[in-house]
UniProtKB/TrEMBL annotation:
UniProt-listed GO biological process terms: protein transport by the Tat complex
Subcellular location: Cell inner membrane; Cell membrane
Protein known as: Sec-independent protein translocase protein TatA
Membrane as UniProt keyword: yes
Subunit relationships: Forms a complex with TatC.
Gene field: tatA
């Protein structure tokens, strides 16, 4: 019921000829909005992967140092 009332008000305000244009511009705006958020998410994910890779290599370096300091029997 409410949708019909909203449609009637839009029809009175904008007229029948402008409603399709209004709908298509609204659809393209929503599409661009979603695309904008998708791009930011990809960049944030790439930065998080870089940070995770950097911390992984530093922990690998620590493991290598520990392995070098161990005696052949495995004791430190």
């Amino acid at each position: 019921m409410e949708i019909l009332l909203i449609m009637a008000v839009l029809l009175l305000l904008f007229g029948a000829s402008r409603l399709p244009q209004l709908g298509s511009s609204l659809g393209s705006a929503i599409r661009n909005f979603k695309r904008g958020f998708g791009g930011e998410g990809d960049e944030a994910q790439a930065q998080a992967d870089k940070k995770a890779g950097g911390s992984l290599s530093s922990s690998t370096g620590v493991q290598n140092d520990v392995a070098k300091s161990q005696t052949p029997s495995g004791h430190v």
